[in-house]
Amino acid sequence: MNTALVGLGVGMALAFAGWFGGFGAFLLVAALGAIGFVAGKFIDGDLDPDEFFRSRSHDRDSASASAGNGTGTGNRTRDRDGDRLR
């Protein structure tokens, strides 16, 4: 299913919710749709929960530590399991 059809379905669902249920139902459908979208991304493996719960100071420390190592990895100093990349 392509993205245009998914967007059409979501738009129609929001339109029906807004028309028949009012603005509150519109917001509820939009919020639940966003939660479902994020949950689907987690299940597909496109999002990593560690990205949301990692502190910003950790990201800055690892970025500054890898800036001068010459390996070309940039900010990616660890893989998904937390092991250091070489």
Describe it.
The chain has three helices and no strands. Helices cover 67% and strands 0% of the residues. It has 86 residues and is mostly helical. It is elongated.
Gist?
With 86 residues, the chain is mainly α. Helix content is 67%, strand content 0%. The protein is built from 3 helices and no strands.
Q: What overall geometry do the principal axes of the alpha carbons give?
A: elongated
Q: What is the count of β-strands?
A: 0
Order of helices and strands: HHH
Unreliable residue stretches: none
Radius of gyration, whole Å: 20 Å
The biggest beta sheet is recorded as:
none
Termini separation: 39 Å
Number of H/I helices = 3
Q: What is the residue-mean pLDDT, rounded to a whole number?
A: 76
Helical content (DSSP H or I, runs of 4+): 55-70%
| Helix-strand makeup class | mainly alpha
Strand-residue fraction?
under 5%
Topology:
Elements: H1 3-44, H2 49-53, H3 56-66
Considering the chains and any ligands shown, give keywords for the structure.
single chain; 86 residues; mainly alpha; 0% strand; elongated
